[in-house]
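User: Predict the complex.
Assistant: Input components as received:
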Amino acid sequence: MTKFSDLTRMPDARGHFGAYGGRFVSETLSFALEELEETYAALRDDPDFQAEFDHDLAHYVGRPSPLYHAERWSRELGGAQIWLKREDLNHTGAHKVNNTIGQALLAKKSGKPRVIAETGAGQHGVATATVAARLGLECAIYMGAEDVQRQKLNVYRMQLLGAKVIPVESGSRTLKDAMNEALRDWVTNVDNTFYIIGTVAGPHPYPMLVRDFNAVAGREAREQSLKQIGRLPDALIACVGGGSNALGLFYPFVEDEDVAMYGVEAGGDGVETGRHAAPLAGNAPRGVLHGNRTYLMSDEGGQVSETHSISAGLDYPGVGPEHALWKDVGRVNYVAANDKEVLEAFRELTHVEGIMPALESAHALAYAKVLAPTMRPDQHIVINLSGRGDKDILTVAKLDGIEI
Amino acid sequence: MNRIDQRFATLKAQGRTALIPYLTAGDPAPQYTVGFMHALVEAGADIIELGVPFSDPMADGPVIQKACERALKHGTRLSHLFAMVREFRSQDTDTPVVLMGYLNPIERMGYEAFADQASEAGVDGVLTVDMPPEEADEFGPVLKARGLQSIFLVAPTTSDARAGTISAHGEGYLYYVSLKGVTGAATLNVEEIDEHLAPLRKLSDLPLCVGFGIRDGATAAAVGKVAEGVIVGSVLVGQIAACVDDPAAIAPRLKDIMGEMRQALDA
Ligand SMILES: Cc1ncc(COP(=O)(O)O)c(C=O)c1O
């Protein structure tokens, strides 16, 4: 049995989180990944590197982000007190920028003049295009053609920032296909290109370094809880696509056994319908995709399943390998919220608190509506409000029958 | 002796270079694959690489991506590939067959079940594109126990240290990826390939076969001068794509291309 303290010592030297993770890539990329691993190993504990990272987070991103007590919504739900970790207030409007700031520093050290990224909702693409603009790097963003349609605002935002947005027409035309195409680009241009992966997935060392860069949110939330609540919260909730905002919040609390954790995946039409993007909550089989072993939605022949979710950022058949381990050892409860519940939560927070969440983040809110009423008013839940909802206005308007 | 080792021993004695075609199984539909395999052998194939279609072929360019899509539209899966190889073996007991693909279909089936059925069907080697030797410590022995050879890739970016690890784990032949890129990419620099193969020869006794970018007799012959084998994929698969509505035209076209390469290699 893995003790929770063991979870702080993951991954092992080969990038494995128990049975998960690893480096399942075609040989051409092995060298680039070894190089990245070495670069990061040298910088991880380098005070100068950390100072530069912290400086950028403070002065460019605007950290620390507030921990906001949603008093009115808490009262309406009639149970636990709800606290929102306001990652939506970061520069570019989501948690994604924490990671791209960190990886941009690595790209700079590598001396490579070009960065690429995959994106679903466009938030990671925007955050990548942003740091690329700031550092004067050439930037190409791969985005599924379907997501290009449903996240038009972010597409234009990336273009304004000087990035080339490349729609991906293959497969299901969503996030997984964008990642395939980004990997193909990287294999081809590995000499001059740094690949900024947007979540805690991909081959080692990405799951580890993306986690480390996002963990600033959890460290802040832990400190803020002690100060503002006077103790640690009783529960944490975050949405899980690849799982970077969730791990960012959860990781610094992993040894706090009294803090319960809930990861909320995309239930789509409902996990029972098969039309969803919830590999953990839906108990998908183990599989290998995009460089790591994890829970992966695939058919009996091992073909990766098409996924369904109202939110482009969660529409992915796999999940970061560290979450797979945390599910198996029981550290986190993985649940799902379906599209309908998510939209209700999106509208509710907007009306009651004047905060419009990203549809991804609204998955976490939807589960809070289930959990909070089962708790007492002297108990506390911290939710990662991973992003703001501006990018989703067109999607919601369309559901309301409004053309903008 | 494994059919692959045997084949390379024969070729060496004859002073010839191996011609290794790749086709995606089930493309354009499963009933054609075995016929294509025989046609390839008639036109001079020494070993056949049979692609296992996958929904997310990350190391492949558009030509083989589309081949996977066509094969998957007909539901081609590993159990069908085993049936194809079995049928092929009823007429051809000599030509080695290597399954080439991605790990997930194998992972889903289970390593033992896969290896049992593959060896029973008459498969000789397995090349899993997204499984470098570091991740193969479980799968490799399972294959070996059934006499199946593990074939690995070496790339222009592979360090000498890694090349050592790879050749220590590799069997059959080393598949040298001739360029940085996905399958079907264009340019090929034979001098550069030769430079990369030289240190590999010091590290490994395995035959060196070069793939990616070989498209006609001339490129095959040029690469054939520096390697023990040439692997050709996208050009052949492109013929299938061009004739999806006229499948009867495919085998003759495959034979034409193969024939030209065979002739150029043997000249
Ligand atoms: C606001 C927001 N939250 C969450 C996610 C999901 O990613 P992850 O699970 O890595 O946090 C995205 C991805 O696009 C996002 O934009």
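The first strand of chain A starts at residue 16 and ends at 17.
Let me know if you want any component modeled separately.
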